[in-house]
Amino acid sequence: KLNKKYLNRDFTTDVLSFKIDEETPEGETFLGDVVVNTDQAKRQAKEYGNSYEQEVAELVEHGVLHLLDVHHDDDNEKTIHGIKLDK
């Protein structure tokens, strides 16, 4: 539902990132929010042979990378993973 509401995409997604990039009163940077579709994470964990916890952790990491402006296109999913592994 969030994918449709905020990105006008009418399909299920596993993770969404909402960039805010504001400074808190304490001087820390708040990057934004990451929302994980836990139902999709369960399906993907089974499909990929991961534990549910591992799948959720990878999705959170993926979402945080988007908040840090690391992006990928649909044709090259490995780009984001390559950047993740190189850092």
Describe this structure in words.
It is a single chain. The chain has 87 residues and is α+β, with helices and mostly antiparallel strands. The chain has one domain (2-86): Collagenase (Catalytic Domain) (3-Layer(aba) Sandwich), CATH 3.40.390. The chain has 4 helices and 2 strands. A hairpin with a 5-residue loop joins strand 1 (15-23) and strand 2 (29-36). Helix 2 crosses helix 3. The longest helix has 16 residues, at 52-67. The protein is globular.
Short description, anyone?
The protein has 87 residues and is an alpha+beta fold. The protein has helices at 2-7, 38-48, 52-67, 78-86; strands at residues 15-23, 29-36.
List keywords for this structure.
87 residues, alpha+beta, Collagenase (Catalytic Domain), two-stranded antiparallel ribbon
Q: What fraction of the residues are assigned to beta strands by DSSP?
A: 15-25%
Low-pLDDT stretches: none
DSSP E strands, number: 2
Contiguous helical run count: 4
CATH superfamily: Metalloproteases ("zincins"), catalytic domain
Shape: globular
CATH topology: Collagenase (Catalytic Domain)
Rounded to an integer, what's the Rg over CA atoms? 14 Å
CATH architecture: 3-Layer(aba) Sandwich
Distance between termini? 33 Å
Fraction of residues in helices?
Answer: 40-55%
In what order do the strands lie side by side in the largest sheet? 1-2
Q: What letter string, H or E per element, gives the SSE order?
A: HEEHHH
Provide the number of structural domains: 1
| pLDDT averaged residue by residue | 82
Major pleated sheet? 2 strands, antiparallel
Question: Under the CATH scheme, which class?
Answer: Alpha Beta
Structural class by secondary-structure content: alpha+beta
